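Figure S7 source data.
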Amino acid sequence: MAAPATRNNARRDFYERIGGLSMAPLWESLHQLVPPAPAPRYRPAHWDYDKVRPFLMESGALITAKEAVRRVLILENPAMPGSACITPTLYAGLQLILPGEVAPAHRHTQSALRFIVEGDGAYTAVDGERTIMHEGDFVITPTWTWHDHGNDSSKPMVWLDGLDIPLVAMFNAGFAENGESDEQAVTTPLGTSDARFASGLLPVDWKPARQTSPIFNYPYARTREALQGLTRAGPPDACHGYKLRYVNPASGGAPIATMGTYMQLLPKGFETAAYRATDGAVFSVVEGEGQSTVGGEVLRWKKRDQFVVPSWASVVHKARGEAVLFSFSDRPVQEKLDLWREDRGGK
Ligand code: 1HN
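Tokens for the predicted 1-hydroxynaphthalene-2-carboxylic acid complex:
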């Protein structure tokens, strides 16, 4: 073998020459390409609603929902500037719709979830049916469905949007089109999907046409009642407190194929055991206050704050009083691909 300096020069020269043919030596990047454990290039982050809300309201004076199409402040991971991503697979933003406004109809192959942070009484319409939204409701906009929003209430409404934008972009599978009018025609009475699908029963001859749930609003009143029921039914899970996943009643799977959604209750003073999983997750604080230690970083949160926990980062949640947390992640995708893993630290 030649002396190290000569050898390194020869290698560099070789890399340059094969670079001209769009080739590269695997042995220089193998460890990075196949890391022994997830090494996410994004960070834990927290958005304090008291700091965010004034900017949201300021945006309301700068542009109408109609002109903006969607008046949203993107929650961008601070380690991924310019990406419009909160994790490498997920997009999140806070959307404001003021009284009397309409966010015009369009559709796209990206799926969306809404989690209502503030306000009561605005509606979203999906494929001809409206639903009135309240704080804590989880509402889905399935892939390629027409959707518009409007606010007939007297107060601003703010919700967290979660979309699978980065995933769809990775597949180059994005399509979108605008509606012919701002508001789509209402063809189905209010409450129809709820009546047909939300009571543990299904219309006898109904067959699902797609993976997404036929229920499009999972109201907080029912979710809260379910959590409360759980607290009476047994002890909390060491890693999660009392945690439920939202479900498509026709399949048992997630309501949206690409994003899993969860709601958990942490009893007063409860501290979870250290936990990590391969799905990075976005959280929205519904009730209470507390803190989450994420990969050694302490995020202090309260009602209406948002925060993000990266893949495989160790997390410990601690509630001061009783607290309720909504979250979403790409877990259903990872599960479909046999990739999802968790580490309960023996708990
Ligand atoms: C979208 O359609 C909505 O429908 C919200 O409310 C956020 C972000 C990017 C692309 C489409 C909505 C969005 C979006």
